[in-house]
Write a structure and sequence with these properties.
single chain, mainly alpha, disordered N terminus
Length: 111
């Protein structure tokens, strides 16, 4: 056994966990030629596909959500809705462009 027997080479590392079928499909080389915007759209598409395939029960998904925050009461939710409506009436709103810019800052891999 050589000194580096337990090491993974860089090319192999990027495909670790992928099936041989995927690695040999040529899909990975096609993805590398896509624009960043197309890659983001593809990630979103695949994420949606996986969610549909897994058919996760919403209650089960929330059960796995780890948070120390207590859930909102119905009164708290209604108060938040009322406040949002008042902000809308006062013109305290964001344009779609502003929202996209903020989302892009927080989640650059999604947009």
């Amino acid at each position: 056994m050589g000194k580096y027997h337990d090491k993974v080479s860089e090319p192999m590392l990027s495909t670790y966990g992928m099936s041989e079928n995927l690695v040999n499909s040529g899909l990975l080389t096609q993805i590398s030629g896509l624009s960043t915007a197309d890659k983001r759209c593809l990630i979103s598409y695949i994420t949606q596909e996986v969610a549909c395939e897994e058919d996760i029960d919403d209650d089960a998904a929330w059960d796995t959500y780890d948070s120390d925050l207590p859930p909102y009461t119905l009164e708290e939710l209604n108060a938040r809705i009322d406040e949002s409506h008042q902000q809308y009436l006062r013109g305290e709103v964001y344009t779609e462009r502003e929202v996209r810019e903020e989302l892009k800052k927080e989640f650059p891999w999604l947009l």
